[in-house]
Amino acid sequence: MHKWIHRSMFTASAAAVTLLAACGGGTDNEEETEDTESSAEETQEESSSDTVTYEGPNGSFNIPEDPQNIVVLAPSYVGYFLALDEKPIGATTQALENPYFDEEMTEGIEDLGDGTSVEQVLSLEPDLIVTLSSDENLEQLQDVAPTVTIDYGQLPFKEQLQEFGTMTGEEEAAEEWITEWDSSIEENRASVEESVGDRTISLIQPFEKGVYVFGNTFARGGEIIYDEFGLSAPEAVQEDAIDSGEGFVNVSLEALDDYAGDIIFTSPWQESETGSADEVYESNVWQNLPAVEEDNVYELDTAASFFNDPVSLESQLDFVVESLEASAEE
Questions:
Q1: Parallel/antiparallel/unpaired status of strands 263-266 and 201-207
Q2: Could you report the per-residue pLDDT of 102-119, keeping only the tens digit for each?
Q3: pTM
Q4: What gap in Å lies between CA 249 and CA 134, rounded to an integer?
């Protein structure tokens, strides 16, 4: 992309995230509607034995004690189930194109496109559905199977993994992953702290003529850099993207200098019809940033940057550590 960017060793060949159109709408006649509702009732009845009461964000309801057919319509959360060895039977295209997932991880998972076809979900006969609280089909999905909703970023990733562990009966697997993760962080802490020193770090994704700057809760390595290693953000980033609880801040190109750290992790936000991130990368403002001048800019894979599940974090950790250690050698 640019000579000043160190590329992630995990860059995927396809960086763009493809979202498919809805696979089908609702039925138009009463008979078909009744058939769909009947099928949903039969599916729930078949899965109703050995249930437990689960207290979810969207209420209290019965879910299978050991769910076997889980559909995950919230793309950012598929990796949690893979980490628990609870492979979903269905997931969205965006999740399946996560560059951190290898072919074996996703083999056998039905591609549900953008996840808006209730009929396609129903055809998989799920006994548990996990989706975002903003899902416009929530009411219909709840008629298909017990449906747990997620508010993105509401829980730190370790607590979210524990929550999914409770949901699937995999509490022990969740704790094992957390123990191993904490051990990996401690193994790298001394080297990272020595390499970084008192320098600040920013996570920046440009678009057209503006910039998104991220904190500690919106992936892109933020959880690792700011929370796990406790490294410093520029004062403006700390105030506007971290302490505010917002997770990110949209700033103008002219204000970028206040948000740019001594070390930058970056990738383009996305292309548009009217311009691209190159308008930022090629600007004098960007080129004159100390991190750019000192060759301390590291490129994240754009498609992978959106994910902060356990599987993704493991790969991000390797890249973050290698990049920060390299920054000490520049």
A1: parallel
A2: 999 999 999 999 999 999
A3: 0.83
A4: 22
